[in-house]
Amino acid sequence: MQKKLWFCGVVFGVLVLNTFSLALVGPTSAQEPAAKTTTDEEDPATLTRIRTLIRQLEANELDKRDEAETELVKLGALSLKFLPSITPQTSGELKVRLQRIRKELESAKSETHFEASKVTLQGTMKLTEVFAKIQEQTGNAIQIQGGEAAGQADVTVDWNETPFWDAIDDLIIDKSLRLVAFATTENILMLAPANESEMPSPFISGPFRLDVMGVESQRTFGTQLEGLTRVSYIFSWEPRLDPVFMQIPMNTVKAKTADGTEILPTNPNATPEVRLNIGGSSAQVDVSMLRLDRKLEEIASIQGQLIISIPGERHQYEFKKFGTGKKQSQRFGDVGVTLEGAKRNGRVYEMRLFVEFGDSQGALDSYRGWILSNRAYILDAKDKQLENVGFQTYGASDNGVGVSYMFQLNEDPDNYRLIYESPSSIRKTTINYELKNIPLP
What we know:
six-stranded antiparallel sheet; alpha+beta; 17% helix; globular; Immunoglobulin-like
């Protein structure tokens, strides 16, 4: 997994690595191997049915064509792999049907990406084995600090379609673990041994989680404030996601004590931002409120909102026969990628790619530097991968950015394929959270 890059003063897009949740039934014990199951993708009958339905899209009878379209959509994302490309020879009606099917399937697939992953696993095994099984099923990488011994502890689990964070919670409670922010630059959830003190219950919403990390009370002098109370959270997400931006509208923060006394934020008009694309799958979030009476023992409840921009599933855009420099465009989901030009520039070949989001959800602001983490590489005739030797931005719009990539090509450029990886959408989502019974210092 590549390290994230970010740059200031440039308009950027997003890299996302997405792996869908797979239902994998684990062994009933550490020694008993899991039975091999046949997935839909391995089922010859399913594949044959999809190919038959695609041919049926051109049947003479209207009801047969309608039936084929409906059933292809019901079969889900697997149908996407077999839908034929639209060419100048594609008939008008078939073109409309293929576009309609593709749009519906891509939309459904995108929605699944933003839901919580599920884990199915039973038995007793080493903690590192549990992590490996979770990653196999969800695409979420997990590691533990504390040396090799920490990962060799035995753990017994019994999960059946259990949401990812509920499964992690079971491990945290069973093995006295805690989440660690900023421990890695990779998309990995880091855990570490914790002390035995009881922690406030986390808030979980789909693939996101909020834990109270600490509370501090501070007295200030020479300012309008007599002091403040700062509540620090660890905001975590499933590692397969890669949220790139978060805002905290302080006017949504509402806290109260057990007797109903309201606790006000120090600056209710502020909307501080938290950059999330700096490594790991957790980030620290601080909320400052007016200083509380030292006699109080806890905050009974604190509520608020987190506004997050999240990229969708990553897609590969492929461009061939670019030796003529002719413009080529491809669209998947809400993202269009155009190879605007390909030409030799000294000893290198320059590829100009313009990436445009139908709705960037405000995620392409100039100071966010994550589009340059999108991968662009060349495959030769033997599928050997050639990395670019440099890149720079050359243009921007409200919803797009142009990036020029340099490659060293020693043969006819038509012998190569240009691959560009980008998410298929960007979603801005609002999380309404509430945490309760937070002890005060």
